[in-house]
Design brief:
Blueprint lengths: L2 H19 L2 H20 L25 H36 L27 E8 L4 E2 L2 E11 L4 E8 L3 E10 L2 E3 L2 E3 L3 E10 L2 E9 L5 E2 L5 E2 L23 E9 L13 E4 L13 E9 L5 E8 L4 H13 L1 E3 L1 E3 L2 E3 L1 E9 L2
Parallel strand pairs: 8-12
Antiparallel strand pairs: 1-2, 1-3, 3-7, 3-8, 4-5, 4-9, 5-12, 6-7, 9-10, 9-11, 13-16, 14-15, 14-19, 17-18
Helix pairs in contact: 1-2, 1-3, 2-3
């Protein structure tokens, strides 16, 4: 079979599978290889015309569709060299395409708990707290995100105005507390959002978890939240909606001091800080005659006892039936709660249900 035909067949197969599995990098590389190959092969069919320069830079003064003996030899040598290069790249492209095919055509399990994420759940879905926290470690001098720093950049989202909150920040060895005084909120599609503000730590620390302990909206009584630590950087949710400050505006940002709440005691469990885990992933029912592989992602809110408190579809498969089956499988599955310093806590878990074609 001609190398070019092999390319066309493999491109069709790879593009189809890449779209199904959302693997676009391999598809791009393959198309690039084919494009270069086709260009080099077709470039050998050129015919010089009057007015084009020779290799020595002198202009032609005649039509060379019937070149002389010496020009003909040079012409044939150039054509042979280009054909050799094009053939070599073409063969290399077929090999690369075959390797990519073996990866892409391997397929995926029916229900895989893999790193596939949907849109973050909107405000108001979380059953454990009425305030949504967005937070990231921040190096004020570099004006950039930093894991180890003496500042954090944060904002809060809620349902009302004039929000105040008590927050807890956790490093591997210490707990810090910070009181955020009443802040005005602005109404957005995602909820009522406070301005971004800084939290100033008493020293450099690697804050890896944070949560809202309690909050007050307007003149209402203080509301306690169930402990639901947010891991900084987890799925990108911890920095949801944060905007990098303009350096010129940094002096205008509000900053609230944090204090050391306590030194964390030594732990005696194997994994003192652990995400919620699924101990048995229920397989969703299959769907016949699918046009392509479908994936539904469900946020499962797991309480401190390991039970499902609520679910929310964060990524639709595009078919209502498979979405419903994905949520049903998430509810029927069993879980172990997250741990924070060996203490069971509430947390959301992303359950992925994949429906093969």
């Amino acid at each position: 079979m001609d190398v070019f035909v092999l390319h066309i067949v493999l491109v069709f197969v790879l593009v189809t599978r890449a779209v199904q599995m959302r693997v676009f990098v391999g598809m791009f590389v393959l198309v690039l290889v084919v494009t270069v190959f086709v260009f080099l092969v077709h470039a050998t069919d050129f015919r010089p015309t009057e007015g084009l320069p020779y290799a020595d830079g002198k202009a032609q003064d005649r039509v060379v569709s019937e070149p002389g003996e010496e020009p003909r030899k040079m012409f044939e040598l150039r054509r042979a060299a280009l054909r050799h290069a094009g053939g070599s790249i073409g063969i290399a492209g077929v090999v690369a395409a075959a390797l990519l095919s073996s990866v892409l055509l391997a397929g995926a399990p029916a229900s895989a708990q893999t790193a596939v994420f949907g849109d973050p759940p909107p405000f108001g879905i979380d059953p454990f707290c009425g305030v949504q926290l967005s937070i990231a470690g921040w190096d004020v001098r570099k004006n950039a995100e930093s894991a180890m720093s003496d500042h954090l950049l944060a904002k809060l989202t809620t349902s009302g105005k004039n929000l105040s909150a008590q927050m807890v920040l956790m490093s591997p060895t210490e707990a810090f507390s910070v009181r955020v005084p009443p802040l005005p909120t602005s109404k957005y599609a995602t909820g009522n959002v406070t301005p971004e503000f800084f939290i100033a730590l008493p020293k450099n620390a690697e804050i890896n978890r944070a949560y809202v302990e309690s909050y007050t909206i307007g003149g209402a009584p203080e509301t306690q939240c169930l402990v639901e630590p947010l891991e900084l950087g987890r799925f990108g949710y911890s920095v949801l909606g944060l905007v990098k400050p303009d350096r010129a505006m940094l002096p205008r940002y509000l900053s609230f001091p944090a204090a050391i709440k306590e030194k964390l005691p030594a732990t005696d469990c194997g994994a003192p800080d652990r995400e919620a885990i699924v101990t048995h992933a229920e397989q969703p029912d299959g769907i016949e005659n699918l046009d392509k592989t479908r994936i539904a992602v469900v946020a499962v809110y797991i309480d401190a006892t390991g039970h499902v408190a609520k679910t929310y579809l964060t990524r639709s498969s595009g078919i209502d039936v498979s979405d419903a089956q994905g949520q049903a499988a998430a509810i029927r599955s069993t879980y172990q709660p997250a741990l924070m310093h060996c203490m069971p806590v509430n947390q959301a878990y992303l359950f992925t249900a994949e429906f093969d074609k």
